[in-house]
Design a protein that fits this description.
Layout: H1 30-49, H2 54-74
Helix pairs in contact: 1-2
Length: 83
């Protein structure tokens, strides 16, 4: 009687290398995230109160929101195989 071959598992073996990342994430300073948060809050308050025109307020909100999202992406942990 022949032995059945062992089933392959979905686990990655040490000899396999992960696929290269399509982009590199560089760490951003903490002040970048702070400026993004404060800018978003201040611009929103000034736009709602009428001190800043709506079109300018939306434009600045978009810029500060993108800054904040970029700072959140930059704090993702790097895993052992990602280099």
């Amino acid at each position: 009687m022949k032995k059945k071959p062992a089933k392959k598992t979905a686990q990655r073996t040490a000899s396999q290398k992960p696929a290269p990342s399509s982009f590199n994430v560089e760490p951003l300073p903490a002040t970048f995230s702070l400026i993004g948060m404060l800018g978003l809050i201040i611009t929103t308050v000034f736009t709602v109160s009428g001190r800043v025109p709506l079109s300018w307020g939306v434009a600045f909100d978009l810029v500060f929101a993108l800054m904040f999202v970029a700072s959140m992406i930059s704090i993702t942990p790097k895993f052992a195989g990602w280099e």
